[in-house]
Specification:
single chain, elongated, mainly alpha, three-stranded antiparallel beta sheet, 17 helices, 73% helix, two-stranded antiparallel ribbon
Amino acid sequence: MAGRPLRAVAATQIRRHWRDRRLIWVSALVVLVMLTSLATAHVRFSQLDADRTAAAIEAARIWNSQGPTNPHGAAHFGRDVYAPVSPLAALDPGLTDQLGVSVRLEGHSQNPARDRPTESAAAASRFGGFSAAWALKVLAPLVIILAGFPTFAGERRQELLMQELAAGTPSRTLMGGQLLALGSFAFGLVAVFTTAGFALLALRGGAAHDYAGALVIGAAFFAYLMVFVGLTLAASAHFRTPGGALVALLCAWAFITLIAPRLAPALAEQRYPTPSAPAFEKAVTEETRNGVSGHDPADQRLDALREATLRRYGVDRVEDLPVNFAGIALEFGERTSTEAYNRHYARLYERYAGQARVQRAFALLAPERAVAPLSMAFAGTDTDAHLVFLRQAETYRYDLIQTLNADVARHPPEGDGPYLTDVGALTAGLVFAPRPPAFADIWTRQAPNAAILLAWAAVALALAGVAGVRLGRPR
């Protein structure tokens, strides 16, 4: 029985919005923006997926068609691998346009990703910043504010609020019914978003974890919108006039959706600066040449390796070895340079993690900084997903290059010409098949953001509840 008055208040408010039509039209506009962006993104990312698949096939064909080739020459010739396109990228493109899509794999070097879509002015101008997730982060909260700010402040000015309270309706029931009405509107927007995402996944042949990711993204956005539902009704109940409530809510909306997303990354970069590409490469080259300590030159390390190899095989000259020392040296050099790159990339990735921690702390002031990384993570379009691809590409690169070097080591020099082999057949068992981040790993990383988002929703609804209790008190 306790729920019947709540439903009655909610139904009354929903009928008011329906008769007013303004909320209906604005909501329809937000839905149109979401569906249009989803359709556009689906076409775009489907084409990107086809292009990258075709490019990967062509790169494999070129590699396998080299014919008789010196393995070390093939290592320097290299090959390209391409990042997969996430099936959920249409929901939230995230950092897709800012991250490289391919990596050149070659010996002695870990190249950064390249061919970022933002390098194309046309792509940036047509698609930059426009997505269904953006509509839910920026437009939907504004619609909630415009729909809810006059709820109590307007009735107070028209002296309708006191009439409702005098008729025996508890203030908590009034607030609860309004929360239910405005929350139903927020749920409807998220339902459209999630349902459309499921439809696109069905077209793309999404896996079970993709559907689960879409559900998590939808739930996160519902919690995010409930923050604005709670804050809007709390402000409407607190301020004496609708104008005061609207000004306060618009200031909060501007900070949360417009200022914080630009301020937080700048502060994070200032707190944890990252080196430029030339500085990074110079540091790796210096360590490779002089060792980790700076006092272990590469020539001395190579001399020590030669002496150890001669002792292992019980001979006095390199020419008497039953293996090719050049291949052993290449294996050693590749292992050494890879260890150096790995150390420097580990420090770089730790700086990225530090920047993420700064932005997570900023989420305590702006819930957008919690929902945005969570949405991108489960959509597979964030930095962590890109780093997973880079690590898989590096693992494949190292196995590929060391396979070539090991083959050189197995064949002692014969005659004056270089050793040649079919590198395509030699590396046929090595196939690059990038895998998306595991769902459990994503959840572990994003649990703090989810907790912050839920805390925001709980605090906002609690503020609305407190304001609802105070509705009937004299001010």
